[in-house]
Amino acid sequence: MRSSVTAQHGWAALDLTERLALLARVADTVEEHVTELARLENLEMGKPVPLAE
C-alpha cells in the first residue's frame, strides 16, 4: 500500500506532457508484446488468443 501511495505522489508531480509520454511508452510496450500478452491471458483465463488480442 505504501508503494502505491508513493507512486501516486510521483505521478501527481508530473506535468501533463510527462504523463502523456509515459502512457505512450506503456502503450508502445503493450503493442510490441500483444501476442505474448494474449497467450498469457489465454493460459490464465482460457480466452481464445484471437479474442485476447
From TrEMBL:
Chloroplast as a keyword of this entry, yes or no, is no
- Kindly give the InterPro entries that the UniProt entry links to this protein: Ald_DH/histidinol_DH (IPR016161), Ald_DH_N (IPR016162), Aldehyde_DH_dom (IPR015590)
GO MF, one example: oxidoreductase activity
Q: Where is each Aldehyde dehydrogenase domain found?
A: 3-52
Q: Which Pfam families match?
A: Aldedh
Q: Recite the UniProt keywords alphabetically.
A: Oxidoreductase
- State the source organism's domain of life: Bacteria
Full protein name: Aldehyde dehydrogenase
